[in-house]
Amino acid sequence: MEKKDITVLAIESSCDETAAAVVVNGRKVLSNIISSQIDIHKLYGGVVPEIASRKHIERINQVIQEALTEADRQLDDMDAVCVTYGPGLVGALLVGVGAAKALSYAAGKPLVGVHHIVGHISANYIANPELEPPFLCLVASGGHSHLVLVRDYGQYEILGRTRDDAAGEAFDKVARAIGLGYPGGPKIDRLSQDGDPDAIDFPRAVIDGAPYDFSFSGVKSAVLNYINGYSMKGEAYSKADVAASFQKAVVEVLVAHTMLAARDYGIDRIAIAGGVACNSALRAGMERACQRNGYSFYMPAPVLCTDNAAMIGAAGYYEFRNGIRHGLDLNAVPNLKL
Ligand code: KG4
Ligand code: ZN
Predict the structure, then answer these.
(1) Ligand 1 mean position, distance from CA 216 (Å)
(2) Distance from the CA of 305 to the center of ligand 1, in angstroms?
(3) Which of 106, 173, 174, 219 has its CA 20 to 30 A from that of 28?
(4) Which DSSP category does 84 fall into?
(5) Is the CB of residue 171 below 6 angstroms from any atom belonging to ligand 1?
(6) Is residue 279 within 6 Å of ligand 1 at its C-beta?
(7) Is 40 left (phi over 0), alpha (psi -120 to 50) or beta?
(8) pLDDT value of position 2
(9) In sequence order, which ranges of the chain are alpha helices (DSSP H)?
């Protein structure tokens, strides 16, 4: 007997992207609509939670409709409605969760709540149809820097995490300090192309007894001190050299800790995920390190690294297959644990 396809509608609204997608069997994306609020938030130098919630409310129904239309499917064709319910901004999450519950109730479709980080990891299933657990995934975004051992679908072990700033947060703060604006990651990435990554020796933090953990507040402070030193003397510094040297310091640590964990846990498949996985130096550095060690390397296309709903559909499919169902009492959980 032929296996029936499972088609899900997925919704994501945890931060500043209002997104909806239609995904088949966790791997095939029929539509992936993303309405970004970046242009509004960049006026304020970062995401303003109240504005994010309001914009989600304005956009969500249309984004969902566009996702169904582009996929050429009706709500009734869906096998489930999947939605990010945490972690994230509570007011932002609530908009997606509310919309998903309403659709689930109205159409009589199962509701599946999805963890945002599991979504980021699952973007790799879309990009690589052959990828199966176990594998190691570095999730680096604006809110998280986790080294996750994916033992099986639905089975995650966090091997390392950041002690302070997330990697993307460090990119955003350094970018702001050198006057590049929000979001800083892509801007530092671009400016680094014109700079010398070996110009300044910024610190690489190692944490005693926690070899896979990260800390980015030290490198961030070192950059701020460097800049202040110059401005106090009234001298100019090379922004491109600061960007490139900072980026190198962060990327080296991300790659080194991932390689260490892979070796210690005997894992030979490595994936990256989250907004920082768009970073060209990280993509190149991780690929080189994997080649050197004989590991297979996986990375989603940039549009699947930053927040989107296709990744939630991929994750939601495997949760659905594992029997996960949520009731209409599903709530947003801003600090949801993995
Ligand atoms: O995954 P994401 O879209 O949202 C969160 O879940 O946080 O990640 C956004 C983060 C921001 O901090 C942004 O600066 C960073 O990802 N980012 C990058 C790049 N593109 C986005 N960081 C470094 N290099 C990039 N090319
Ligand atoms: Zn994210």
Answers:
(1) 15
(2) 8
(3) 106
(4) E
(5) yes
(6) yes
(7) alpha
(8) 58
(9) 38-41, 49-71, 90-107, 116-127, 167-177, 184-192, 217-233, 239-265, 280-293, 302-305, 310-321
Low-confidence residues of the chain, pLDDT below 70?
A: 1-2
Give pLDDT, residue 178. Answer: 95
pLDDT score for 295: 98
d(CA 179, CA 103): 43
At 42 the pLDDT is 86
Cβ 278 under 6 angstroms from ligand 1: yes
For residue 55, the one-letter residue type is K
15 C-beta closer than 6 A to ligand 1: yes
Tokens of 264: 């210690």
Cα–ligand 1 centroid distance for 273 (angstroms):
10
Q: Is the CB of 143 under 6 A from ligand 1?
A: yes
Do residues 84 and 12 make contact, with C-beta atoms less than 8 angstroms apart? Answer: yes
Rg (CA), the chain: 20
Compute φ and ψ for 295, nearest 5 degrees: -95, 150
Index of the ligand 1 atom closest to the CA of residue 274: 1
Q: What's the pLDDT score for residue 275?
A: 97
- Give me the pLDDT at residue 196, please: 98
What's the pTM value of the predicted model, to 2 decimals? 0.96
Cβ atoms 253, 211 nearer than 8 A: no
Instruction: Please count the CA atoms within 13 angstroms of the CA of 244 that sit on its side-chain side.
Output: 15
**Nearest ligand (C-alpha, residue 276):** 1
3-class DSSP state of 30: strand
pLDDT at residue 226 in the model: 98
- Report H helices in 113-216: 116-127, 167-177, 184-192
Is there an atom of ligand 1 within 6 Å of 160 CB?
no
Protein residue whose Cα sits closest to atom 8 of ligand 1: 275
The response to whether residue 86 sits with its C-beta less than 6 Å from ligand 1 reads no
Which residue matches tokens 């990828």? 131
pLDDT value at residue 38: 86
